[in-house]
Amino acid sequence: MSQRKLMIPGPVDITPEVRQAMSVPMMPHYGREWILLHNETREMAKRIFGTQHDLYIMAGPGTMALEAALGSALEPGATVLIVNNGFFAQRLVTIAQGLALETVEVKAPMGAPVLPAAVEEALAKHPEVKALAVVHHETSTGVLNPLESIMGVARAHGVLTVVDAVSSLGGVPLEVDAWGIDFCASVANKALETPPALALLSISPRAWEHVEARQAPRGWYLDLKTWQWYEEHWGDWHPSPVTMPTSNLYAFHESLMALLAQGIEGRYAEYRAAAQAVRGGLTRLGFSPVVAEAYASPLTTAFYMRSGVDPDELKQWLCDEAGILISGGIGELKGEILRVGHIGLARQKDYVIAFLLGVEGYLRAQGESIPWGASLAALDAAGF
Ligand SMILES: *Cc1c(COP(=O)(O)O)cnc(C)c1O
């Protein structure tokens, strides 16, 4: 097995404890033992979401939870306002259109946030809008949209809210009930640090009203009415409509225990320190960050190339010579930027140092004379 360090924005390197939890004997996705594991895991996840309302643990990717939310709550032909400043927001547009919804977009250039005033203007101009969908952390650039204030604007207009928190939940503050989020979708395999397989979807009472009022057929597995039926009728022994990845739930339970034992604030601080150290170090080496400090997430750092540095070559060099995997640009910024993730074990000091020394090593291999460790000066300031 390769010992490469994953420094991509997910999937992520996970702790040995969480990996070992995957090797429990097989168990059924029903019965007493399962109910205990499932319900306890769900209660812990609710604490991370900041919700007292419903939360479903679903088998599948985050995209599935988003599709389930939009399809279950909205009739074909209903209009959704999509806050669009990146690749994953564009994915929301595609999902909505695939569900025969009408879309209106409020845009910002990639790397810039969409501000509440722009959302306010769009909602005032389009009274037909029934729901607003927004990506919290746009992983394609590392920008954090000001979610709490955008939710405030949406509430004031009485529209349903669907949040893609796939890469933000567990990594930055997010309060589903306090901010009035109707649907919040995430996964267990990004900042919650387990292997891929599980999606998470919180559903407010208001969201349920929309789901229950919807008439059009919306399939079966992705119709939340199906999930509700199982919860209500079979909740005490078989709470999900399909076979669940039971080993993954063990891993998720383990990971949530570790996170809650550490305290979520402590985890947030680790991400912030890793991101600051990387941002500071790259700046010292002459690279400029894509996102302005005020809106830069502590979960992914995207940076532009300096003149003469080819992003694919640098990325390949890091992989071959330093054993580190980072990501390239996607969408409009493909070929212009690179992205380094700080989630999973990448939040640790040894990953950050290996990455920065790797970039230095590449530049030295290009003939630049950079003193060894020049990029590490930001580590102390970052609190490492
Ligand atoms: C990773 C990611 C997704 C896609 O998640 P899947 O689990 O692959 O469906 C969606 N939105 C954001 C913001 C992401 O980072």
Order of helices and strands: EHHEHEHEHEEEHEHEEHHHHEHEEEHH
Total count of helical runs of at least 4 residues: 14
Helix-strand category: alpha/beta
Strand content: 15-25%
> What is the count of β-strands?
14
Low-confidence stretches: none
Strand order of the largest sheet: 2-10-9-8-5-3-4
Bound molecules: pyridoxal-5'-phosphate
Shape: globular
Q: How does the major sheet shape up?
A: 7 strands, mixed
Q: Roughly how much helix do the residues carry, as a percent range?
A: 40-55%
- Through-space gap between termini: 30 Å
Q: Overall mean pLDDT score?
A: 96
Our Rg estimate from Cα atoms comes to 21 Å
Summarize the structure.
This protein is an alpha/beta fold and 384 residues long.
Topology of this protein?
Blueprint: E1 5-6, H1 16-21, H2 32-49, E2 54-59, H3 62-73, E3 79-84, H4 87-98, E4 102-107, H5 116-125, E5 129-135, E6 137-138, E7 143-144, H6 147-156, E8 160-164, H7 176-179, E9 183-187, E10 198-203, H8 205-213, H9 224-234, H10 246-262, H11 264-284, E11 300-304, H12 311-322, E12 324-325, E13 327-328, E14 337-341, H13 349-365, H14 378-381
Parallel strand pairs: 1-12, 3-4, 3-5, 5-8, 8-9
Antiparallel strand pairs: 2-10, 6-7, 9-10, 11-14, 13-14
The chain binds pyridoxal-5'-phosphate.
Pyridoxal-5'-phosphate (PLP) binds at residues 10, 61-63, 88, 135, 137, 139, 164, 166-167, 187.
